Amino acid sequence: MDAAEVRHLRHPHADTDGDDDDDFLTASLRDDVFMVGKKPSTPAEIAVARSRLARRLASLSTASKHTARNASKAAAPTATPVEQLDVLARSTASFRVLLQRCSDGLEACRRSHYYSVLSRTTQPAHIVTFVSMALLAMLLFPRQQAADASASRTASTSANDHRGSSPAGPAGPSPWVHLTYVVAFAAHFGSQFWMTFVSGLSLFFSLPRHHFAEVQKVLFPLYFAINATLSLTTLATFLRLQSAHGGPLSTATWSWDAEVVVQVCSMVLCFLLELLVRLYLTPPLLQLITAKTEMEKTVDGVGQEVGRYDLGPLTQCPHYVRIHLAFRKVHAAIAVANIAAMGCTALHAHYLAGKICV
């Protein structure tokens, strides 16, 4: 065996591994220099060289594993204990866990049979409409309650006069009623303004059309459901305040005031518009958006435009044209209803502006 073969035995990774230990390289290089010009090695020398090489490779392997373990420990992010987090981080983590649990519960409900029945049929919408109309009737025509309250006040006044004491004045509304009324109206008007003039236009001119459609599919049901709830809350608290201050609902004779009647009618109209849009126009609109998007994805480039429409060859497809026209009609009806509801809210804002005393 010549010097090259012994050197290969001593340096099996010399050509491929350039990150060996410096001591190992120095010792191996010294041995190679001493082997130059010598006679062929004996079997005993070869055995000694192999054992020495095995020991050096084992030591290098142990050192490399230790170095890699230390590097991984240094690179791995250490989990910060919850106790060491600040208040904002802890609250954010807790809120994330709460949202995840709510999302899991909602997903479980969506997979149930009852949800499919409620979401794929119109009977639930009819039930909600019936309950809403009954609630409006209770708010607008509390004749029996007003008569009972009037009789009770008359009896109390007669008893006080008989005892010679001054009658107690009617109790005013709770401060919580005022707070609920102001907050509900402000949130309602602000939501309408933001969704109509800020959010929709900003997203349409900033996102690809398909991304904008996905966002609107999430926002539309929430927007009209929340607005209908806020509108009903504003109406109920307004009627409560009017009855407490001697308004049209204070007696059984219904001494109507024209200004209050206009406000009540506008709030009722606003509530009905937002409720009907949520129950009867939003579901078909979402279905049409889904159908349009699926067809547009079959054509390259369609749906990726920002702030404009470019339907390309789909304008020649009769089926797509029918879906697109149906979408435009439903969307236009929703837009008109939204503007009408916003006009009703603006009318009530004008009424409030005339009542503010600073």
Please give the structural blueprint.
Blueprint lengths: L2 H8 L11 H14 L7 H33 L11 H24 L2 H8 L2 H18 L2 H21 L11 H30 L4 H36 L13 H39 L21 H38 L3
Subcellular location: Membrane
Organism: Megalurothrips usitatus
InterPro entries: TMEM205-like (IPR025423), Xanthocillin_Biosynth-Assoc (IPR053009)
Description:
By secondary structure, this protein is mainly alpha-helical. 75% of the residues lie in helices and 0% in strands. Helix 8 packs antiparallel against helix 9, helix 8 packs antiparallel against helix 11 and helix 10 packs antiparallel against helix 11. It is elongated and about 120 Å long. It starts with a helix and ends with a helix.
Task: Compose a concise summary of this entry.
The chain is mainly α and 358 residues long. It is 75% helix and 0% strand.
| Total DSSP E strands | 0
Structural class: mainly alpha
What share of the residues does DSSP label as strand, in percent? under 5%
What's the Cα radius of gyration?
40 Å
Shape: elongated
* Spans where pLDDT lies below 50 across 5 or more residues: 13-21, 164-169, 248-253
Keywords: Membrane, Transmembrane, Transmembrane helix
Protein name: TMEM205-like domain-containing protein
Pfam family, one: DUF4149
GO cellular component, one term: membrane
